[in-house]
Write a structure and sequence with these properties.
Shape: globular
Structural class: mainly beta
Order of helices and strands: EEEEEH
Number of helices: 1
Number of strands: 5
Distance between the termini: 34 Å
Helix content: 10-25%
């Protein structure tokens, strides 16, 4: 498991919510993720790998998206 320091924010907001999460792999830019089965979806905007830190594999910055709009545009 990769321990990732995740920074999330709502669309148009500047305030980040920061917390640590275990991922099976580090997310990549342009990818979507959710932090719970009924939670909001986030789009990864930036990934910073941190090989110097034995505790954290990467930092991920992501913005909240409307999952229904994403599904509608992708699943035509």
């Amino acid at each position: 498991m990769a321990k990732v320091f995740v920074h999330t924010r709502e669309q148009g907001e500047m305030e980040w919510v920061n917390d640590y999460y275990p991922f099976s792999r580090v997310p990549v830019e342009g990818e979507y993720f959710t932090l719970s089965s009924d939670g909001e979806w986030f789009l990864v905007e930036l990934v910073v790998h941190t090989p110097f830190d034995k505790e954290v594999h990467a930092e991920v910055f992501a913005v909240q998206v409307d999952h229904l709009e994403i599904m509608k545009s992708k699943l035509k």
